[in-house]
Amino acid sequence: MQTTQEVHNEAKQHMEQAIEALKRDLATIRTGRPTPALVEQVRVSYHGTPTALIAMAAITVEGHGLVIKPWEQATIPAIEKGILEANLNLMPTNDGQVVRVPVPPPTQERRAELAKQAKHRCEEAKIAIRDARHKANGVLRAGAKNHELSEDDEHRALKEIQETTKEQEKHVDALFDHKRHEIMSV
């Protein structure tokens, strides 16, 4: 059996992975300001292979929009098509050299909808965190049941994992509060 510290570290690692995934996920939710993260992971057909936009172009913020400068000019139509197919409610245009994507500020109704999406994604991250706790607790209880772990060690380890879970959930709440503020501010 693993030591209680190994079980705790493994659970914490899974919780931190859930938070990192949440951060990447929240970065894709539109706010009033343009950010390259909105389109970085858009899949574009590059020589027949779906490729992330970030791997085939430089993406910069310019005024109230994004400017996408592809490494190969021939990919401009595929980039436009990929952005349109991603259902981001963005309308790309090109001038033969770059693709410009104006990012209009969302309406108040749309902001509320985006905040709701962010809340849902945060809840999914909390579920992943609790799942990591559940798995770790199962390992510890099995160890105690098989007499590989003392009852005191089991209780101490369960308490540590619960504290870590609460810390990680607070981190998720802080991420949500920040994102909600970002979305709702004009």
Relevant terms:
four-stranded antiparallel sheet; 186 residues; two-stranded antiparallel sheet; alpha+beta; 4 helices; elongated
Topology of this protein?
Blueprint: H1 4-27, E1 43-46, E2 49-52, E3 57-62, E4 65-70, H2 76-85, E5 93-94, E6 99-102, H3 108-145, H4 151-184
Antiparallel strand pairs: 1-2, 3-4, 4-6, 5-6
Helix pairs in contact: 1-3, 1-4, 3-4
Polypeptide structure, described:
With 186 residues, the protein is an alpha+beta fold. Helices cover 57% and strands 14% of the residues. The protein has helices spanning 4-27, 76-85, 108-145, 151-184, and strands at residues 43-46, 49-52, 57-62, 65-70, 93-94, 99-102. The strands form two sheets. It has a four-stranded antiparallel β-sheet with strand order 3-4-6-5, with helices on one face. It has a two-stranded antiparallel ribbon with strand order 1-2. Helix 1 packs parallel to helix 4 (151-184). The longest helix is centred in the last third of the chain and has 38 residues, at 108-145.
The gist of it:
The protein is an alpha+beta fold. The chain is built from 4 helices and 6 strands; from the N terminus they run H-E-E-E-E-H-E-E-H-H. Helix 1 runs antiparallel to helix 3 and helix 3 (108-145) runs antiparallel to helix 4.
Amount of beta strand:
5-15%
List the strand order in the largest sheet.
3-4-6-5
DSSP helix fraction: 55-70%
Radius of gyration: 22 Å
Number of strands: 6
Report the sheet with the most strands, covering strand number, pairing sense and barrel closure. Answer: 4 strands, antiparallel
Q: Indicate the low-confidence ranges by residue numbers.
A: none
Number of helices, where a helix is a run of at least 4 consecutive DSSP H or I residues? 4
Order of helices and strands: HEEEEHEEHH
Distance between the termini: 54 Å
Secondary-structure content class: alpha+beta
Average pLDDT score: 90
